[in-house]
Amino acid sequence: MEKKKYTKPLFTKMLVLYLLLVIGAGFAMLWAVIKTQVVDGEMWREIASKREWIDRVEPARRGTIFSSDGKVLATTVPVCDLCLDLGRWPKLDSKGAVVKKNGKTVMESCITNDSAFCANLDRVCSILHTQFPSKSKQYYYDRIWKEYIKEKPSRCLYVERKVPYSQWEAIRAMKGWERCVVKKTADGSVTGYIRAHIYGNLGENVIGLHYHTPQKDGYTGLEGYYDSVLRGQDGLYRCRRLTMGIWLPVEGEAVPDEDSTLLHRRVDGKSIIATIDTRYQDIAESSLKASMNKYGGQRGCAILMEVGTGYVLACSSLTRDTSGRLTEKLWSNVACSDHYEPGSTFKTVAMTSMLNDKQIALDTSKRVRAGGEKVYSSTSKTISDGHGDAHDTANLAGVLMRSSNIGMCELAWEYYRNRRGDFKKGIEDIFPFGMMHPDLDVIETPTRVVQLNSDRDFLNLSYGYSCTVTPLQLVTFYNAIANGGRMVKPLFCREILDGGRRRDVKPVVMNERVCSEETAKQLREMLVGVVEKGTGSNIYNSVYGIGGKTGTSLNIKDQSIKNSSFVGFFPADNPRYTCLVLLEGTSIAGRQAAAPVFKKIADCVVAFDKELGSIHLQDSVRVVRPVAAKAPRQQLEVVHRLLGMPFGLGDTTAATGWVVYDAERDGYRNYTLPTGVVPDCSGMTIRDAMQLLRSVGYKVRFSGQGKVVAQTPKARTAAKKGSTVMLELR
Predict the structure, then answer these.
(1) Other Cβ atoms within 10 Å of 577 Cβ, number
(2) Do 630-729 and 279-595 have the same topology in CATH?
């Protein structure tokens, strides 16, 4: 059979087709190269650069805030997320086969030592509960144990976030927990940093709290105002990839098509020294809180300033939340932001304006009638006053001393009835009604004096109404009176620490002269009289002297409740400190609610201030005989000898070693130990009571703390030796 041969036309067609395919593929490859290098070249070069080079930010360490007495108020501390690897898997032998116990039960391997893990679980839960009191020990125990006993437990169980590093390390160091505490998760390292207040919520509103809103992420208080100083500058490092996941900083190395000036070192933030003194801040907060708990009040503040510099040594702002608990809230800085009608504390401002006008003499006598009434015009409201005797009169000092509304109205009506604009302007010229702009990040709005369109508004202004002030404004004015008429701005930062250098935050003068030095001296004498003989006499102190003014006004929003305040200075002869205490929303007058808080703060400051050399507190201290219900005679003799006091015990021939206090003779007498009955231990310390009971053959158990208030069996009842006496302490 003849073979079939390919014809020439068919071969030519196949050759042409092959050439066309080759040429087409070549053009496609050429177009791909052109598209990659020219059309999309910039995009691919950027992708390649990102895979080989990356910019990484190294956060700067935020500066520390110190108190003026050298304590750390706020600093950056490391924290860790506590994550546990509780995973289990089948145990394999050397050949890779699953190991079974008795040929049936699959043996399991786990990352923990079961017995040691379970033995220390209770300790771990106790540590977590101590650090996070809002969550119970049982909560942590249940969370970990329920996951631990699962058939397939989690390889990364988040137990708690932001655990202090020291506590995290303590947990990781426990036997059985070394390997199960995760050091790195899929999101990266478990270690981070937070801003910590070392003294808890002490002075939180002044130090500053972190906040986050859709518009801004920042801080309040000192943290916010000095953010640019504390923040520092983050480091920016250009890193080059060595192997998968490993990047090496290459600072200064030339990078193609990149600006090498983007690379810079990390600069940590500077530290600052606040004016707050932790000793004074603590007494201010605790005293204010105690008064608000006793007398009520929705909001309150206590401010302590240095007279000469304006440095704020203590500033406590408390707000009662819906549960009735007193706290310092994020934006609720009562001292700087709250507007209120000051009441009688504003009488000093009005009196200063009148004395500046040079038309009123100090011995000017005005009526201060008890229950008195006077209608100043047909449109003004009748004004009554509860201070002074009927038809009584007093000079300017007496008006302030008695806090007489009638007296202030008499003065305003006689001298300013036809010059009301001058009266208002005189007050506005000396009082800082505008924005104070303290060195804190706080919400602040200006206060004002209302338009004096009626006789009532005009007269109200003379005794502290028809105007609004903030506590910080009022204490600043009183500070100016204590400072001889020179008004300085309140400051909350004393120094900025820049490496080894210190930059002082110098005092700022707001008003060089609110009144003459002579007028300031006269006003100080009046305010001292208020405390010695007037409405503030309940805090009179003959040792260092206090000058100040009580104030009680109706609340602007709810006139059924009051604002109670006291503001003044100390020591009286040479003022060094000014203090204001305000309780908003209470039913008690400033004399009772606010003045005692002022006194506690003043006592604390004087006790700690070593520069008050002219004040000898020991001269006013009367050495009181130490009193013990029953005590070992030998111990009391030692105490009396150290105090330089005679012990005063008469006959000691029948001494048993125990003495009992005799109130009638203010001394001690011998105590005869009873036989067959239980001794009376009431009023004794637990140490003395245990020693006494054991000396006559009884065992002792007790509950509570303090001194003995009850005992079982009762005193002077028969009980066998060796029986147990239960003591209740309080």
Answers:
(1) 23
(2) no
Residues 26-69 have pLDDT tens digits of: 888 888 888 888 888 788 777 766 667 777 777 888 999 999 99
Q: What are phi and psi of 542, to 5 degrees?
A: -85, -10
Question: Residue 278 pLDDT more than 70?
Answer: yes
Condensed to tens digits (0 to 9), the pLDDT of residues 469-482 reads: 999 999 999 999 99
The alpha carbon of residue 293 and the mean position of all alpha carbons in its chain are separated, in whole angstroms, by: 18
Instruction: Tell how far CA 459 is from the center of its chain.
Output: 40
- Residue type, position 14, single letter: M
Sheet hosting strand 562-570, strand order edge to edge: 326-327, 312-320, 299-306, 577-586, 562-570, 547-554
* 57: Cβ contacts below 8 Å, ≥ 6 apart: 234, 235, 236, 237
pLDDT at 243 over 70: no
**Position 227 confidence tier, pLDDT thresholds 50, 70, 90:** very high
Sequence-separated (6 or more) residues with CB below 8 Å from residue 722: 697, 698, 699
Domain at 279-595, CATH from 2.60.40.10, 3.40.710.10, 3.40.720.10, 3.30.413.10: 3.40.710.10
- Both structure tokens of 276: 């707050």
| Amino acid type, 161 | R
- The strand ranges marked E within 233-276 are 235-243, 246-249, 271-274
Report the pLDDT value the prediction gives residue 548, as an integer from 0 to 100: 95
More confident residue, 526 or 380: 526
The full DSSP string for 566-606 is: EEEEESSSS--EEEEEEEEEESS-HHHHTHHHHHHHHHHHH
Residue 483 CA: distances (Å) to CA of 59, 323, 569 = 45, 42, 10
- Among the listed residues 275, 286, 338, 268, the one whose alpha carbon sits nearest the alpha carbon of residue 308: 275
Q: Are β-strands 372-374 and 246-249 bridged in parallel, bridged antiparallel, or unpaired?
A: unpaired
Domain boundaries, the chain: 65-262, 279-595, 630-729
Q: What is the DSSP string of 631-671?
A: EEHHHHHHHHHHHT--------TT--SEEEEETTTTEEEE-
pTM comes to 0.72
- pLDDT value, residue 222: 94
Kindly give, in sequence order, each residue whose CB lies less than 8 Å from that of residue 632, ignoring residues fewer than 6 positions away. Answer: 657, 658, 659, 688, 691
The helix, strand and coil proportions of the chain, stated in percent and rounded to the nearest 5, come to 35, 25, 40
CATH: 3.40.50.450, 3.40.50.2000, 3.30.420.150, 3.30.10.20. Which one for 630-729?
A: 3.30.10.20
Chain Cα centroid distance, residue 336: 15
> From CA 351, how far away is CA 373, in angstroms rounded?
22
Residue 489 vs residues 345, 435, 494: alpha-carbon distances, Å? 20, 11, 13
Distance CA 730, CA 709 (A): 6
Which range is least confidently modeled, 11-15, 106-110, 398-402? 106-110
Q: Report the DSSP beta bridge partners of residue 72.
A: 66
Residues 78-116 as b or e (16 or more Cβ within 10 Å = b): ebbbbbbbbbbeeeeeeeeeeeeeeeeeeeeebbbbeee
What letter would DSSP give residue 344? G
Separation between Cα atoms, residue 482 and residue 573, nearest integer Å: 10
